């Protein structure tokens, strides 16, 4: 049996392939009657309508699937981002590895809305989670794992206080952050 996330990946792959073929990502082009031939250059109207309907159906189905997953708390959403946990507690490197194996990456909030979406999962499991943020080369300077600078922060009062010895960052159940050693067991929360 395929897992829920496998079905989503397959549906997304299908949507992505179709939309790239139409050079119209991510918007679903209107039917030929509305946008004329410009929306799907070179395709006969009948085929354009067929593709439009197929994309609209896929989009509708994906939205419903997301609604189901959100309803039972399997995913939380913030804009285009989706967050989910496998419920496992492990150290930083292993959490990152399991997120990447699942086709995502470790979660890190880029704004307040994403912070809340991740916090909702942390609260649900009542477990602190590692974020995809680490200390850079300059001691005390934290950045996203991909090297980008932090434009949003939500440190707990008096944090970070590790003086270079706490190179990872955990999220508390109130959504605030603490710099922390990387070898603790923390909830794995991934971004997809
Ligand atoms: C512990 C660790 C530190 C944290 C303090 C806060 O010592 O979790 O990272 O800063 O508690 O009191
Ligand atoms: Ca700390």
UniProtKB/TrEMBL annotation:
GO molecular function: carbohydrate binding; growth factor activity
Cellular component terms per the entry's GO annotation: extracellular space
UniProt subcellular location: Secreted
Keyword flag ATP-binding: no
InterPro entries found in the cross-reference section: C-type_lectin-like (IPR001304), C-type_lectin-like/link_sf (IPR016186), C-type_lectin_CS (IPR018378), CLec_Tetranectin-domain (IPR051663), CTDL_fold (IPR016187)
One example of a Gene Ontology biological process annotation: ossification
UniProt cross-references to SMART domains, sorted A to Z: CLECT
Signal sequence extent: 1-21
Record-linked PROSITE patterns: C_TYPE_LECTIN_1 (PS00615), C_TYPE_LECTIN_2 (PS50041)
Keyword set, alphabetical order: Disulfide bond, Lectin, Secreted, Signal
The protein's name in its UniProt record: C-type lectin domain-containing protein
Domain (C-type lectin): residue spans on this chain: 83-191
Primary subcellular site in the record, as a coarse category: secreted
């Amino acid at each position: 049996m395929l897992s829920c996330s496998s079905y989503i990946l397959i549906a997304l792959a299908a949507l992505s392939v179709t939309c790239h073929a139409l050079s119209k990502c991510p918007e679903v082009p209107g039917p030929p009657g509305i946008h004329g031939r410009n929306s799907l250059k070179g395709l006969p109207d009948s085929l354009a309508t067929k593709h439009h309907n197929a994309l609209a159906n896929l989009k509708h189905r994906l939205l419903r699937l997301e609604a189901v997953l959100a309803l039972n708390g399997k995913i939380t959403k913030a804009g285009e981002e989706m967050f989910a946990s496998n419920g496992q507690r492990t150290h930083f490197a292993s959490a990152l590895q399991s997120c990447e194996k699942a086709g995502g990456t470790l979660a890190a909030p880029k704004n307040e809305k994403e912070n809340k979406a991740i916090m909702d999962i942390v609260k649900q499991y009542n477990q602190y989670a590692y974020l995809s943020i680490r200390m850079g080369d300059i001691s005390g300077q934290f950045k996203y794992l991909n090297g980008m600078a932090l434009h949003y922060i939500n440190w707990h009062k008096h944090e970070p206080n590790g003086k270079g010895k706490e190179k990872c960052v955990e999220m508390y159940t109130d959504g605030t952050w603490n710099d922390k050693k990387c070898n603790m067991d923390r909830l794995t929360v991934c971004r997809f």
